Amino acid sequence: MNLATRIVAMISRRTEWAEGHVFAFSPEQFAVSDGIRTALVVAAIFAAEICFDYPNLAFGAIAAFWTSLCDPLGSNRRRFRTMATFAVMGCVAISLATYGAHWGLWGIGITLFSLTFLCLLTRTFAPSFGPMPAQAGFIAAIAVVVGLASPRTMSGAVTVGSCFLAGSALMIAIALLPLRERRSGTGRLAVVAIFSRLDDMLDSLIELGSQPDPGSQLWARFDTVNRRAIRFSLERGRELVARSGDTDAKQKLLIDAASRIFSALIAIGHSRKASGLPFDPETETVALHGLREALTTALLEMEHDGDGKAIGAAAAKLLELSAGRDELLFRALDRAGAALKELSGRWNENTSAAAGGSPANRSFKIPPAVLWHSLRTSLAVLVSYFAGVWLGLSLPYWGAIATLVVMQPLTGNTWLRVVERGVGSILGGFIAVVAIAIASNHIEMALMIVPLCAIVIALRLVNYGLFVIFLTPMFMLMTDYVQSVDDLIWERVLNETRGACIGIVAGLLLWPTRERHSVADSIAAAIAANLAFASSVSAGGLEPDDLDRMERDAGIASSRLETTYERLWLEGHGRLTDLPRLQSVIAALRAICGSAAVAKLLQPRDSGAGGMARADEYRAISEELQGAVRTSSLASIRDHQSLAEDELEHGVQNLIMAVRAYADPRSQATIQKPAQ
């Protein structure tokens, strides 16, 4: 393996705990080449500004950096469209902002509110599985706030806008230059992250299976941290490969194979946890080590652009180990071996990994959630700015930017952003103190800003906290470069704290999203997906690929619900009384998914009339439980008779009782334990 692969593999294993909670960490998206390109453009603009003694060119450097932040990756057509959109929006926004500031406080107030509101209307809040590129409308809103610090007449505003547009145009031109293996590099590293975490999950499974009584906490880590981290890695990998536009389908095939192997490991883990028996070291443990060798072989074949024959040989060896064995572990390994065998057979296919066709037609209808969030954020930013003016702070726009960043559609996300930004700003502030103390002139300051630009862009899709650690000193140095202010660090601390506090208060008071409804929707979605999977397994008759898709949907829904749980925990102690009951619902859903994964391997293709009746009953239970969660009433839940004596049925009955307890805390339901 090359150095980048080794680093990503190591970091992916070490950061499972972070992604298993709320703080996503994506080492496979560390973009060194993008950081270097951005740094070169910013350095060139600074050099021109210093040589020609033309301070307005500093806005071009800022524009180049922001344009790079908006780079969505993927096809050059998509990248050009997104970055060009920001260039135009940013140019108009900063020009109008600098001109509006020329008219005094009234002009600032009207300009700040109206332009921020219009820019934020272009945002979207689609769910994702990790850090995403900055949206053009959001960065344009920041440009509005920054522009207020530099009042200009009409001609001066046009000059600032022209420099901004020129900096963006230069960044776009350099960013779109062809770079060898740029597209496939991210996809390859995404696969490395997935297989590294699969290997770590396999390690945990072998360790748990070798102990007679590993304890509930270790199994809980396996069922939550391992499973959720791999699920997010799989879905993020699919997004990255589809977005890259790469014509090599190997990454997509590897991710599909990894998904099937992941399903097999879930089934093995659930079965082993239920039985409480250790693995047979001479057969079962040896077979699991054979799977590990096969995973390593697949990764090496991708890394060295092999012909896939080594994967076929590893798959044949794994299938040989499981041949003639009827135990669940060997059935699961047989499924994993079949996935690797199919991967080997399709290794040299040259189909596109990305979805083809023309882009979908865009709708210009503004969702109500975006409209209300834009309105309340604009009001909060306005209050934050004028609070700084009232307090007599030199740079009140810093507080406005802090408010803009921490404001999120959901209160829990606001707290999350405050935590990440707060920790990052404190650590970044120490870097800034040293940098500002060392830099004695603009040349030295520019020499510090340029490498920080490279680091910030390289980290922008890895982790928000790390991103802020280096963004803070870069932004402070850039501010001091454009407009030198005494006591810069103290001003930054005051404004960051004030802006974050105003953002939190505004998130709580200005038309807050009803969190209970949001949580109820997440629970209902997880119930629907998991019971749909259980119902389909019980009914039989579906193709394995269809069952795989349903298991994937169930895993995604459960992972999102667990992330909601972690987010609620960040909101504070006032909500903690609900969390134990929500945790019981999550545990019951995970048990159902694991039991269904086991049943998928053990049950015959056609389950007969009994299976169909059971499937119909599970669909009815799903509707009733979703209604109970959304209405906080037990009226919709009927009494259900147990249809069988197996893990899946016990899991469904436990889910019913967990939902009863969540919907009505007065319910005295007790979670059952399945018979061993």
Structural summary, described in words:
This protein is mainly alpha-helical and 676 residues long. 74% of the residues lie in helices and 0% in strands. The chain has three domains: 3-16 and 31-179 and 370-509, no CATH class; 182-345, Methane Monooxygenase Hydroxylase, Chain G, domain 1 (Up-down Bundle), CATH 1.20.58; 515-663, Four Helix Bundle (Hemerythrin (Met), subunit A) (Up-down Bundle), CATH 1.20.120. It starts with a helix and ends in a 13-residue tail after the last helix. It contains 25 helices and no strands. It has helices at residues 3-14, 16-19, 32-52, 57-69, 76-101, 104-120, 136-147, 154-175, 182-210, 216-244, 250-275, 284-303, 309-322, 328-345, 368-390, 397-406, 411-438, 442-459, 464-482, 488-509, 515-539, 544-571, 579-602, 608-631, 647-663. InterPro entries: Memb_transporter_dom (IPR049453).
Largest sheet: number of strands, sense, barrel closure? none
Q: pLDDT average, as an integer?
A: 80
Strand share of the residues? under 5%
Number of helices: 25
Number of domains: 3
Topology as a string of helices (H) and strands (E):
HHHHHHHHHHHHHHHHHHHHHHHHH
Overall, the morphology is globular
- The counted number of beta strands is 0
Give the oligomeric state. single chain
Distance between the termini: 44 Å
The low-pLDDT segments are 351-362, 669-676
Q: Label the structural class.
A: mainly alpha
* Rg, nearest Å: 27 Å
